[in-house]
From TrEMBL:
Involved in phosphonate degradation. Homodimer. One of its GO terms (molecular function) is 2-aminoethylphosphonate-pyruvate transaminase activity. The keyword Transferase applies. Substrate binds at residue 340. This is 2-aminoethylphosphonate--pyruvate transaminase.
Length: 367
């Protein structure tokens, strides 16, 4: 095995299939209909079909990483009089609060701590106390800790109180079944290089058409104007306003075909779940503890406490795993010393078994 031949156990970019990588070996013409209609419009339709079985939703693709699309949604969906309630229990919720502050968007950050799920009763009290709150933003899977936030409960609250719901489903869409219409999600954000298993380069938004239609002229930014991007794709059959990441888009089209071949989102969810359960059971058998209680875990990524041994260093552990063909992720939790292991991408239960062997050999602090 050469040095570059390793499996990414990270929350994206992640290990993609050879066929997804090979799909990029073509230079598309961005005004030709082979690309705009044949690839871009087909992707949009497929994303809408994956997100819901009913009509009333549309989709927009946007250049950049996932954060660009989050910023585009916040900056485009909220009008000057609107106020946003941000649920924050990790780095991605905190990033939304930072974006809102920078764009001068009126907001309240409900911080429930990194290892606790949001309390929907407390959120309802916040809504009742401040009638100006018009929108709620929630991270579905908080990749910082691996926590799966209670989307159905928050969605029911938004519906009950008539609030517009924005969901950062970056690390869950394509890997966890959901229906945007049944849940009443107005804007759902995800990106190419997470559970759809494409390569980095763009993000996408599934939006309730009637909500997006209200957003003309609201954007705080030119290039992150989600409405203008959408109009361009609608009016010019899949055309991007500015240079399109053509190779990433081709890879994504292939990744969507492979999602179908796997058996769709339900089958992928089952695989990720199996990966995660095997990982946690195996790591516990080796003496590691998870940061979160089992009831809070997502099948996407898991945070483990670092060993308490004097001579443990993440860097050394990381290198020893990398030499055996696995790349893991450092922790991102502010108050606890952790590392993280993801199980999304081209990662299968037998890979997790091999990883567990590699971990047992890499535990130098015990030898
Ligand atoms: C990956 C991710 C993002 C976006 O991060 P980028 O580095 O901008 O791609 C946002 N939210 C969550 C929950 C994520 O996992």
């Amino acid at each position: 095995m050469n040095d570059r031949d390793y499996l990414l156990l990270t929350p994206g970019p992640l290990t993609t299939s050879d066929t997804v990588k090979q799909a990029m070996l073509f230079d598309s013409c961005t005004w030709d209909e082979d690309y705009n209609i044949g690839v871009v419009q087909a992707i949009r339709a497929r994303l809408e079909a994956l997100a819901t079985t009913t009509s009333g939703y549309t989709s927009v693709l946007l250049q950049g990483s996932g954060s660009y699309a989050v910023e585009a949604v916040l900056g485009t969906a909220l009008g000057a009089q609107d106020k946003l309630l941000i649920v924050s229990n990790g780095a991605y919720g905190a990033r939304m609060a930072e974006m809102a502050a920078l764009m001068g968007i009126d907001h309240h950050c409900y911080d429930c701590g990194e290892t606790a799920a949001p309390d929907v009763t407390a959120m309802e009290a916040l809504l009742l106390a401040d009638a100006r709150i018009s929108h709620i933003a929630l991270v579905h899977c908080e990749t910082t800790t691996g926590m799966l936030n209670p989307l159905a409960q928050v969605a029911a609250l938004a519906a009950r109180r008539g609030k517009t719901l924005i969901v950062d489903a970056m690390s869950s869409f394509g890997g966890i079944p959901l229906d945007v219409d049944q849940l009443g999600i107005d804007f759902l954000i995800s990106s190419a290089n997470k559970c759809i298993q494409g390569v980095p380069g763009f993000a996408f938004v599934i939006a309730r058409r009637s909500e997006l239609e209200k957003c003309a002229g609201r954007s705080r930014s030119l290039s992150l104007d989600l409405y203008a991007q959408w109009r361009c794709m609608e009016d010019h059959a899949g055309k991007w306003r500015f240079t399109s990441p053509t190779h990433s888009v081709l890879a994504f089209a292939q990744a969507l075909r492979e999602l179908d071949l796997e058996g769709g989102i339900a089958a992928r969810y089952a695989r990720y779940g199996e990966n995660q359960r095997r990982l946690v059971a195996g790591m516990r058998a080796l003496g590691f503890d998870t940061l979160l209680d089992d009831g809070l875990h997502s099948p996407i990524i898991t945070a483990f406490y670092s060993p308490q041994a004097e001579n443990y260093r993440f860097g050394e552990f990381y290198q020893r795993l990398k030499r055996q063909g696995f790349v893991i992720y450092p922790g991102k939790v502010s108050h606890s010393d952790c590392f993280r292991i993801g199980n999304i991408g081209e990662v299968y239960p037998q890979d997790i078994d091999r990883l567990l062997d590699a971990v047992s050999r890499a535990m130098y602090w015990q030898h």
